[in-house]
């Protein structure tokens, strides 16, 4: 783990409009693939001005934490919007841990020599 000083901390949400104008939240981007993992939630406000309300019927009935999950092909996407949310640095920052000292040296005495040998 590395400690860094940052001036700004933000989160980027990617919203897409799926078939029939349903707003979906992208949970796993497709890196060269043709399938996207998406989420629909009645508790999130989509950034689109015109969209279809209600649960998308083409998503699977997977309920997890009151969210509906599913997969969507990239050719079914009609619009994409990225929303940037600035996060409060004080909520995410932690003080740097104190530097630890090296462990004490091994006790004095003859050095142990490890020799490679054949297995019998």
UniProtKB/TrEMBL annotation:
Biased composition range(s): Pro residues: 95-110
Domain of life: Bacteria
Region (Disordered): 91-120
Name of the protein: Uncharacterized protein
Provenance organism: Cellulomonas oligotrophica
């Amino acid at each position: 783990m590395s400690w860094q000083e940052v001036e700004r901390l933000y989160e980027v949400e990617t919203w897409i409009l799926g078939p029939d104008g349903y707003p979906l939240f992208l949970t796993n981007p497709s890196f060269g693939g043709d399938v996207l993992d998406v989420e629909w939630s009645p508790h999130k406000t989509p950034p689109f001005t015109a969209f279809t309300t209600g649960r998308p019927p083409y998503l699977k009935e997977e309920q997890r934490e009151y969210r509906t999950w599913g997969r969507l092909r990239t050719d079914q996407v009609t619009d994409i919007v990225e929303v940037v949310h600035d996060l409060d640095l004080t909520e995410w920052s932690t003080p740097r841990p104190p530097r630890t000292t090296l462990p004490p040296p091994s006790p004095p005495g003859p050095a142990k020599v490890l020799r490679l040998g054949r297995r019998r």
